[in-house]
Amino acid sequence: MPRFADDIAREEFQRIDPASRPRPELLVGPRVTLRPIEETDLLAVAQILAKPGVAEWWPVHSEAALRSDILEDEESVSLAIEYDGRLIGLVMYSEDLWRDYFAVGIDIALDVDFRGQGLGPEVLKTLIAWLIDVGGHHRIYIDPAAANTPAIKAYEKAGFKRSGIMREYELGPDGKWRDGLLMDLLAREFERLA
Ligand SMILES: CC(C)(COP(=O)(O)OP(=O)(O)OC[C@H]1O[C@@H](n2cnc3c(N)ncnc32)[C@H](O)[C@@H]1OP(=O)(O)O)[C@@H](O)C(=O)NCCC(=O)NCCS
Fold first, then answer.
1. 71 in Cβ contact with 160 (< 8 Å)
2. How would residue 10 be classed by pLDDT, with cut points 50, 70 and 90?
3. Chain segment 147-187, per-residue pLDDT in tens
4. Which of the listed residues 61, 115, 162 should we mutate to test ligand 1's pocket, taking the one with most ligand atoms within 8 A of CB?
5. 22-189 has CATH 3.30.70.260 classification
6. 1 pLDDT band (50/70/90 cuts)?
7. I need a surface site. Which of 19, 90, 160, 167 has the fewest CB within 10 A?
8. Which residues line ligand 1 (CB under 6 A)?
């Protein structure tokens, strides 16, 4: 069936304008605060990402690489995580702006000294509430390495469900491909922080 005109019209509306998307200013959880990351945070973030326990799961950690990955990448939004007045980590999100696949992916890393206190799930829930309420998202996803058990546990506490294994999904620090676990969370299932 000739649908050429329809297809052109559809094409014009398919991609959401990145400039129209809201950006978070300050997000406040019960214990954590999330704010846009700044140039002066890069060294502290690089040090957090370089520590054993984080570096295995987060490959880019030189200050220069972070600058292009965090400050200059227009596709993703990076927020500093503060706790008790200290920078303790980084959370990033990147939106899929094709209208028919509108969704958002998240990444997070916390300083090893602040892990195991439920701060990661709190950061995620604080950000997810904003992504749903202000960003209008219905689906949020996250893609830890399948072997990253602590992260998977934290993501389940935040409400993510396991979608499936992505075989040989990412290159590990040993130069070998490793499996990833795709996890997602739907807005209608989201349980907010009290
Ligand atoms: C993923 C991450 C943000 C989770 O944050 P968190 O605040 O530690 O999450 P939780 O407190 O819910 O702990 C989750 C699990 O971590 C493990 N854990 C607990 N204390 C820990 C510690 N001191 N060090 C390492 N892992 C610990 C436990 O298995 C815990 O699950 P459990 O409470 O059911 O036993 C954090 O582990 C992290 O930054 N990891 C390194 C970077 C990374 O892997 N990022 C993910 C890329 S997709």
1. no
2. low
3. 999 999 999 999 999 999 999 999 998 999 999 999 999 99
4. 115
5. no
6. very low
7. 19
8. 53-54, 57-58, 107-110, 112, 115-121, 144, 148, 150-151, 153-154, 157
Residue with tokens 């075989």: 167
104 CA distance to ligand 1 centroid (A)? 22
Name the residue at shortest CA distance from atom 28 of ligand 1: 150
- pTM exceeds 0.85, yes or no: yes
Of all protein residues, the one whose alpha carbon is nearest to atom 48 of ligand 1 is 144
pLDDT in tens, 79-125: 999 999 999 999 999 999 999 999 999 999 999 999 999 999 999 99
Residue 194: predicted pLDDT: 86
Query: To which H or E segment does residue 64 belong?
Result: helix 63-66
Which residue has its alpha carbon closest to ligand 1 atom 18? Answer: 116
Predicted pLDDT of residue 145? 98
| pLDDT exceeds cutoff 80 at 61 | no
**Residue identifier of the C-alpha nearest atom 4 of ligand 1:** 120
Residue 121 contacts residue 110 (beta carbons within 8 Å): no
Q: Which residue has the tokens 């309420």?
A: 133
